[in-house]
Each structure stands twice: as C-alpha cells, then as structure tokens.
Amino acid sequence: MSKTSPLLVGISGGIGAGKTLICKVFSLLNIPIYNADDRAKWLMTNHPPLKTLIIEKFGASAYFEDGQLNRQYLADIVFSDPDKTALINSLVHPAVGEDFKSWALGQHSKYVLKEAALLFETGSYKALDYTIHVTASEKIRIERIKSRDPKRSTEQIKQIIKKQLTDEEKNKLASYIISNDESALVIPQVLKIHSQLMRNGH
C-alpha cells in the first residue's frame, strides 16, 4: 500500500504577529514544521541549480569564494528595488516549494506546517491545502519587535509592515485565522484548528 502524503498547511503572519510562538504550540502536538525562511537560506548556498540562477541574475559577487552566500551584497541590491525583490523571490520560492513537498512526503503525520513570512505575498499559499494566518494589532506588533530588537525605530518597523499585505487582505486568503493579541486565548484556537485538520487529513 502506498503511503498517502500529509495535508500541506501554511502558517504565516506579519512581522511581530507571533507565528513562531504559534508554531511551537503546534509542535507540542507533534506536528512537523518546515521553516521556509531558514530553508531558503540553506538552499541558496547548497542547491546548485538555484545558485547558478542567482549568479546569472545577480552576478558572481552574490557568493564569497568559499561558496557561501554574500547576504549583505544581495540585501543591498534587493531591499531598495521592488523589481529585484520580485526577481530573487521568483528564483528562491519555487526551489523552496519543491523542497517542502519532498520533505512533507517523508513525514508521518496527518498534516504538516510550512512556516513562511511571505506566504501570501509570494503566492506560494496557492500550492497548499490550507493556510493559517496569525494576526495581532499593529500597536502590539511594534511593541513585540522593539522588545526583541531595541535598535529598530517605530518608523523602521512601520516601513517593514507596509511592505507586507494588510491583515485584512491576508484574512480573505486564509483558511483559518488565529488572533494573537491577548483578546483571546491562543491554545484553544490552535486546538480547534488542529482537530479540524486531523479530521481532514488523509
């Protein structure tokens, strides 16, 4: 009998919304979690076809002589130019998508979670069975980011938030919404989604 693949579920939230905390709750329920942002960094250094594409589009300076990614060089190019941001995303996200699917096939679970900061912005949510959006008010998000990174100004944080889709836009695209702004307890929200996904799983 062939092994059925788990449901592919994406989880995202704007900066400071607390998706990492929510993922920890899911991991306590023994749900495997794939961190797309960490994995993207790994693939940019260790996936030869992707490295070739990055060098073609951004030049040999995108990598150091030892083969490691020159993050600062790429960040300087990409951060100030929306077209370059779109270009790097168009190279990296398909590679991450394929890597995630291969990883998911090796998991023994009714569903798996793909944690990604820009799940909705990049359109990668379309390749998933369900999506979860973690929300919190802008005020709470700014407070959280400042407490973990005091060097960031309110203005800098607002600029980052502006580059992401609004919560209203993401809520329309999401299958499930978790409110993480102290207005409702988080664990009962997670357990409700978990039980629904376990029922829907193959």
Automatic annotation (TrEMBL):
TM helices/strands, residue ranges: none
One example of a Gene Ontology biological process annotation: coenzyme A biosynthetic process
Pathway recorded for this protein: Cofactor biosynthesis; coenzyme A biosynthesis; CoA from (R)-pantothenate: step 5/5
InterPro entries: Depp_CoAkinase (IPR001977), P-loop_NTPase (IPR027417)
One GO CC annotation: cytoplasm
Kinase as UniProt keyword: yes
Keyword Transferase assigned: yes
Catalytic EC class: transferase
Ligand binding (ATP): G16, A17, G18, K19, T20, L21
Gene Ontology terms, MF aspect: ATP binding; dephospho-CoA kinase activity
HAMAP family hit by this protein: Dephospho_CoA_kinase (MF_00376)
Family listed: Belongs to the CoaE family.
Protein's name in the database: Dephospho-CoA kinase
UniProt organism field: Cyclobacterium qasimii
Lineage: Bacteria, Pseudomonadati, Bacteroidota, Cytophagia, Cytophagales
